[in-house]
Amino acid sequence: MPSYASLWRYMRSHGLFKRARRGPSHSPGAQAAEFRYEAREVRSYESEYVNGLWHLDFHHGSLRVLLTDGRWVYPILLGILDDHSRLCCHLQWYLAEGRANFVTAWARLFKSAICPARCSMTMARP
Fold it and tell me: What average pLDDT does the segment 51-70 reach?
């Protein structure tokens, strides 16, 4: 069964969504608004083919884990997902975000997978 995102992408590409109109649909203002909407640049992270775009992101775990030294910490998951197929290319748990952890995961991934055409990574601060 295809994912929700795949169905959404297919339906949107074939114009299968109805949009509610506000006001008369054939007025000059409505036509200008429609033209402006269609001409607008819409940036999305949807790729047309497998390995076209990978998303990389660190996610903070919700459950603490006990380390061997007796400390409780919240683990952090690095997830790398293919945009088109929604395949999880790599998942790895770490104790902290950082360049070293990212490079380690990236190197392990390339030992078992091919290179993507593009990558997208969130660089937000908590």
Answer: 90
The structure tokens listed for 93 are 């748990």
Q: What is the pLDDT of residue 42?
A: 56
CB 44 within 8 A of CB 118: no
Collapse the DSSP code of 14 into the 3-class scheme (helix H, G, I; strand E, B; otherwise coil) and give the result: coil
* SS3 of residue 5 by DSSP: helix
pTM of the model: 0.57
Average pLDDT, the chain: 81
The Cα–Cα gap between 75 and 66 comes to 10
> Residue 104: is its pLDDT beyond 90?
no
Q: Give the three-state DSSP class for 108.
A: helix
Determine the Cα–Cα distance for residues 18 and 12; give it in Å rounded to an integer: 10
E strand or H helix at 76: strand 76-82
